[in-house]
Amino acid sequence: MIQLKNIFKYYSNKFLKTYVLQDIALEIQAGEFVTIMGPSGAGKSTLLYILGMLDEPNDGEYHFLEQPVHKFNEKQRSELHKNYIGFVFQSYHLIDELTVYENLETPLLYQKVKAAERKSMIADILDRFQIVAKKDLFPNQLSGGQQQLVGIARAVIMSPKLILADEPTGNLNSQQGEEIMALFKKLNQEGTTIIQVTHSEKNAAYGSRIVRLLDGRVQDDRPTD
User: Fold this and answer.
1) What residues form DSSP beta bridges with 88?
2) Topology adopted by domain 2-223
3) DSSP 50-72
4) CA distance 121 to 4
5) What average pLDDT does the chain have?
6) Is 175 exposed, middle or buried (0-12, 13-18, 19+ CB in 10 A)?
């Protein structure tokens, strides 16, 4: 599903290149549940954003579903992201001016899903995430855990092939965190490929493989114990 070859990401001023990722090579098969770990500043989130086509590397090759993402322009990358990828952000990224229902509707509008089908898909996901009672509330009327649930519901509403999650339980209490991870596990068992960034060994145990980064390089890549 994913092949990264010799991926470099750096920021440069006149005299100096600061490397965030160096010579990353990675293959991820459809149906895997992969965790990316490493200390702060190791390049985890940058790697996730490149995988999600929200950022691009300076050098290297990225193939997604056998398509050469590194040769695509921004519009082509955006289309690919929209059609295949759900992104769960640590800071929710809900639209404050929209209700829960409208936040969930946004990706469906982008995809030009017809009104009747939108209604049914949203009803379905509200029910699945047990947030029917919250549908007319705005994000600032929800707890952190509820906002994260809505963020995840929005990421999965289009049944993406790939879910990318950046510290998905970072702002949640332990029970909410376990519920979110159990949900990811279930989605993965249903066939969705998942890549998560986390500091939590407990969350990593839900996946099948851990890729550890250090100073922007892959230090270790092995199955979960």
Assistant:
1) 165
2) Rossmann fold (3.40.50)
3) HHTTSS--SEEEEEETTEEGGG-
4) 34
5) 92
6) exposed
